[in-house]
Amino acid sequence: MINKGQITGMRGVYLVAAQLSQLGLIASPTSRSAKGADILATDQECKRAYSVQVKTNATTFNFWLLNKDAKEMISDTFIYVFVNLRDKNEVTEYFIVPSNIVADKMKTEKQRKSTWYSFSYKDAKKYDKGWSIFKA
How is domain 4-135 classified at the CATH fold level? Predict the structure, then answer.
């Protein structure tokens, strides 16, 4: 059975794919079990291609959880889109962040037997609605 977190993640992926399509890109969600990219996108002439990792929050809005491999997954064409699904009366937030910034600013927190990796809202804020990265 699919859980609430998976639904939130899928919702974020499709919202980002719609935004990329609005920019004139061809955006295709990958298999949900694919490592790394949630969306593969290209311009209509197939001259520019991007791998997009989407991280979506529906309740906690001051950080997003990351995979431990985020530290090594760096490419000029690998982009993170951090999404905050706010209440119905508020606008959905999108922060479009290059992978090298995510790798550099990723926080690691160890608690007992668990290790958590995250990217903070504070670090994402300057990339608010930075969709222009896909036009470069």
Answer: Trna Endonuclease; Chain: A, domain 1 (3.40.1350)
